[in-house]
Design a protein that fits this description.
By secondary structure, the protein is α/β, with parallel strands linked by helices. Helix content is 42%, strand content 16%. A six-stranded mixed beta sheet has the order 2-1-3-14-6-15. Strands 8-11-7-12 form a four-stranded mixed beta sheet. It has a two-stranded antiparallel ribbon with strand order 4-5. α2 links the parallel β1 and β2. α10 crosses α17 and α17 runs antiparallel to α18. The N terminus is likely disordered.
Amino acid sequence: MRTRWIVVLLLLLAGCTSGGGTSADGPVTLRFQSLAWQEESIEANQELVKEWNATHPDVKVEYVQGSWDSVHDQLLTSFEGGEAPDIIHDASDDLADFAYGGYLADLTDLLPERLKSDIPQHSWDTTTFGDGVYGVPFLQEPRVLIANAKWLRESGVRIPTPEQPWSWAEFRRITEQLSGDGTYGVAWPLKEPVSATLNLSLSAGGQLFHRGSDGKVTIRFEPADHTVPRTIHDQANTDRSASPTTLGSGGSDTLPGFFGGKYAMVPLGFSYRQQIVQQAPKGFEWQVLPAPAGADGLTQGVSPQTLSVAEDSPHKKEAVAFLDFLLRPPNMVRLALGDWMLPTGTQALKDPALHTAKDGWATGTALAAHLRPAPAQSVRGYPEWKDKVATPAFQEYYSGAIGLGELRERLEEDGNLVLARYQR
């Protein structure tokens, strides 16, 4: 009888193990949830999984397709239910609550030295919370201006380069010069205005979130934070150089009007170039320009895509070994090309394929050195603040419904009340 109870206990313990499975005579199985969504990106990820499996018979990786649209809630449910994938694809600005909540493994002592040294410290800062590292930042995406090349050329305006970008004031003047007769110099797609505003505000010295000596964060909407939102507001409401109808649109929604000659420029993430290549009419001339520069030059914030390991995974070392394989420089280049984004690794960034003039790769790569952690990167409560406070406040400001003073009051007063609940 005693032997039977021991067997039952062992079976129950085995059934409670989360993460990938293993057996005495079988391989370890790791579940890798990828958020790749573009066809080229999915193909690159799946090919790399196959290559790993072909050369690692004792550690098999199972590819699981996830979705950016629902990843936060889906991960939270899987963490609380003990069913999280071993390897988790996400974005760095979504990691703070998961890291502080104990759901992600601290990779500090697990990461190989090659990977640590290849990715710059400012990128590691995006996945560092407290004293731990809870993800590997591997792809990043600057915001750029996608411009109608023929329109700009014929207008005679100065074409900016990473070496000589437009200032925010010059950008405003040029968009006004390009507007008229039902056309606009720029179309801002600001359905989700917070990350675009905050990340671009770093160029003007904006910070918004301030961490005190006690570690607590407060929101202060200071003059340096005004430059970018005021520019957008004035383009839309004073100069009439920004289309008012696109302020509530997503990036893809602006492309038909851009191709149709309604807007001279659209500020977009770097990866939108793939959609432009696929959808642009034959003969349409477009080019990639750097976003405007401010007091801090071309600096802008990014929230890199990340790869993390679940704290509950019983195979953390094997999971990190797969990450090391997936993020070898040649493989990181394949992932970057598949997603039309930039790799974080310094060796991968040197690849000639990322320095071609075609499709604006060289312009984007020139911006890599100026990318820094997004302002809200490590702020607990940011998702709630963004959804409940900042998004509606910025949307009303950009539409002209409220002024800069009321925007400041709502960001600070309402925002600090939200953050305070997470910092008790």
